[in-house]
Amino acid sequence: MYRDPEIAEDTRARMLAWRRDIHANPETAFEEHRTANVVANALMLMGLPVHRGLAGTGVVGTLKNGEGPSIALRADLDALNMQELGTQPHASKCVGKMHACGHDGHTAMLLGAAEHLSRHKPFKGTVHFVFQPAEENEGGGRVMVDEGLFEQFPADAVYGMHNFPSLPRGRFAIRKGTMTAFLDTFEIVVTGKGSHGAMPETGIDSVVVSAQLVNALQTIVSRRTGATDSAVVSVTQIHGGDTWNVIPETVVLRGTVRTLDPGIQDQTQAAMQQICDGVAATHGAKVALDYRRGYPGVVNTPAETDAAIAAAASLVELAQVHTDIPPAMGSEDFAFMLQKRPGAYIGIGAGEGPNDPNVHNPYYDFNDNILPLGAAYWVALVKQQLPASRDESMMR
């Protein structure tokens, strides 16, 4: 169990309202205009100066209380392009879009922390509340950094948090070093020679070439990657052909690569190129690989990871803070912020039972029971990293 966070009842009620309103009105990458308005209006009602426009729909609110260090706290705004199948009253009103990853809850928890901190100011220094668009696939974190996030809002460290439905409520999870995978994508265009389906000998069969490529790519992990290293190579799309009796000229394969180490990332890309060249030569086809590097890995820095652990442990028993979880093969564009500033990314448990839908599931819904604890984590982190003077602490 954990201690009941000191988050006021009216703040709890507002977090619930914000969360469900945002959930019912999901917006996807770089289109979070309504969501950004909700966030900006809430921050302005707290009396915070608000900046808008980084990465188009990004919002940054700043709370300053005297001189001292500065930190940035980040939440994500965007939803996913998928149909919600849940039937709760606050289910998505937008066909084909839903908050299936909990960004609605992340936003509400950070707003709740901003409200608590702006009321009580139990710190000295500056807190930047960063609400980032386009985390899902589109790299909004990279865009905010490239457009000058930390130049406009200097921060000594940056922190992020994500809900984990697979982790029981009342627990946290984190690790030093690499916590999430490097995310790359690829497209392979196979060009053969189209022919009649009954006379394959007159052409170069791009479908057969593609089938061999799919199988050969799996040997990168099974036969070229060390057993103690981690890599995933997944072909997720195959496009080619229009009718039953024509062998198509071209087939397109697309997919994703996940690694936990830059060296393995380089090795995997080189192996894919070698396989594509070899299969092309074997069949006399053309095979063009377009390998695109995407999100880097989230790499938690040691001191900031310790700070996150201490903040979490101030709210729950230390035994409920898992400090050496295995790295995940999922990815997160918070990594771009960690490339520029030290920081840490922590998971907050959201599970109530073994049958809870996980993120990116059409029945998933953020667990509102963790809203106060999530907000309290942010508050505890700020109090720890931006301590008020002893005299002021005694007066509170």
UniProtKB/TrEMBL annotation:
The lineage of its organism: Bacteria, Pseudomonadati, Pseudomonadota, Betaproteobacteria, Burkholderiales. This is Amidohydrolase. The keyword Zinc does not apply. It comes from Variovorax gossypii. Mn(2+) binds at residues 101, 103, 136, 162, 360. Residues 185-278 form the Peptidase M20 dimerisation domain. GO terms for molecular function: hydrolase activity; metal ion binding. Its cofactor is Mn(2+). The keyword Metal-binding applies. Keywords: Hydrolase, Manganese, Metal-binding. The Mn(2+) ion enhances activity. Belongs to the peptidase M20 family.
